[in-house]
Input
Amino acid sequence: MFSSCSSLRSLDLSNFNTSSVTIMKNLFYQCKKLIFLNLTNFITSSIIEMNRMFSYCKSLISLNLSNFNTSRVTKMNSLLFF
Output
C-alpha cells in the first residue's frame, strides 16, 4: 500500500480500520524517508502475514508496536530489516 513511497516522511494511521486485513506484507517496505508513523489503534488480530512490513524504513525514529496482536501471524520474516 505504501511500499516504496520514497518521499513519505510522516503518516498518521491511528484511525485506519484494519480489522479485516489479513496480509500486511510490504506495507511500508522501502519508505526510506519515513520518520514518524502512528499505528495507534491498528487492529492486527486477523493478520497472518507481516513479511518486510517495515524493512528499509531507515529513518524511523521510533515505532510503537505494543498494541500489535501477532497471535495469528505465520510469516514475519524481515519485519524490521535495515
Notes: Residues 1-82 form one domain. The chain has a mean pLDDT of 93. The first strand starts at residue 10 and ends at 12. Residues 4 and 47 are 21 Å apart (CA to CA).
